[in-house]
Amino acid sequence: LSMLSWHFKHFMNPKVVVPDSKMPIIEYSDEEAWALAMLMMSWRNISLPIMLIPKGKRETLPIVEEKVVEEKVEIIKTSSIDWGEELFESKYCSECHTIGEGVEAGPDLIGVTKKRDFEWLKRMILNPEEMEQTDSIAKELYQEYEEMGMVVEELTEEEVEAIIEYIESFDTNKD
């Protein structure tokens, strides 16, 4: 119980328990601090007295039918692909690349998700200059397209993933 109390006190005021603690002071209620302390103790696989386990209402959650889940997943995929299309246009990918319309300034991207794995594509979009210097495939492409490197865009990983999903949607639709 002393370890549980220590965690509780640490959540309530970390600097009192550990003077040079880097943990920020957050104004937890007693109930929140006890819940966090209990969580910490549960990670240590220590049996706590049953009287310390909070009593609450047991709620039965409705069972979600598989079809509903599949429909929601499809909506998320569609949204991600739409977002990817918007990014492909707004981040100027379409200035150099087409998808199924032939070579422009850069390669046509139709089928690229079948030729290159997801992580490679992600690295190529996020760090084209580094890839053109270190990766043999990227070096080849750099030479093939007259040393015109890929433009570096400030993109988040999520944006890059959406762009790749958009490109991949063409590849999966062609099967």
Q: What is shown here, in short?
A:
The chain has 175 residues and is an all-alpha fold.
What can you tell me about this protein's structure?
57% of the residues lie in helices and 0% in strands. It has 175 residues and is mostly helical. Helix 1 packs across helix 3 (30-43). The relative contact order is 0.10. The mean pLDDT is 83.
Order of helical and strand elements: HHHHHHHHH
**Helix vs. strand class:** mainly alpha
Mass-distribution shape: elongated
Helix content: 55-70%
Q: How does the major sheet shape up?
A: none
First and last CA, distance: 62 Å
What do the pLDDT scores average to? Answer: 83
Count up the helices: 9
Quick one: how many beta strands?
A: 0
Range of strand content: under 5%
Rounded to an integer, what's the Rg over CA atoms? Answer: 26 Å
List the helices and strands and how they pair.
Blueprint: H1 2-12, H2 14-17, H3 30-43, H4 66-90, H5 112-115, H6 118-126, H7 128-134, H8 136-144, H9 157-173
Helix pairs in contact: 1-3, 4-9, 6-7, 6-9, 7-8
List the main descriptive attributes of the protein structure presented here.
single chain; 175 residues; mainly alpha; 9 helices; elongated
